[in-house]
Amino acid sequence: xxxxxxxxxxxxxxxxxxxxxxxxxxxxxxxxxxxxxxxxxxxxxxxxxxxxxxxxxxxxxxxxxxxxxxxxxxxxxxxxxxxxxxxxxxxxxxxxxxxxxxxxxxxxxxxxxxxxxxxxxxxxxxxxxxxxxxxxxxxxxxxxxxxxxxxxxxxxxxxxxxxxxxxxxxxxxxxxxxxxxxxxxxxxxxxxxxxxxxxxxxxxxxxxxxxxxxxxxxxxxxxxxxxxxxxxxxxxxxxxxxxxxxxxxxxxxxxxxxxx
Length: 260
Prior knowledge:
By secondary structure, the protein is an alpha/beta fold. Helix content is 31%, strand content 14%.
């Protein structure tokens, strides 16, 4: 990274794993080929390296299993999660094409998945944020994502509409106007097209702090996959290392602009 990452920054990487444990694979009704294709479409490939390469381990919270196992970015309670109406709450029942993903779960199976994958992840995030607050009096969560260059069916978006290179997501409570402007400007200076909260919106904050603690700031950064990936098979482009360095430098420049 161009500058050392401030110790109060946490990189949240929820969707870059392709791991599907065997006990969960038995719930999924897709063939191996179909599952591989779904993982290619739905994984935020290589976002750990894009955003957090070189960052201290204590400042990186990465989900170790695929979002097809449990999506740690969703609200735990489907009553509070808008995507649950599409079958894509914390535990997906459908694929990116809105076809069945897994068999109906038996009593207790959803809670078992949440206990095994969702709650431990959020406990790690809560602990990292709390440590930053205790030590530094502040925390910035950078929510690290990528998105396909063409909208997938579950998005209910027009695939003919051109997408930006970069999407910056904000939260009304936890993202200041200064922070949003700094991140947009940093990526624009690199020559990339940038949209705010399009095609995706929001930024993740630990549940215990959400809407309550202004010492916790958050911003989501989404990278268009065509900038660094051959999307058909998730192979990184030859320019991957250069793009990753530019992404990390943009994040650090944005942070520095808000903290001169």
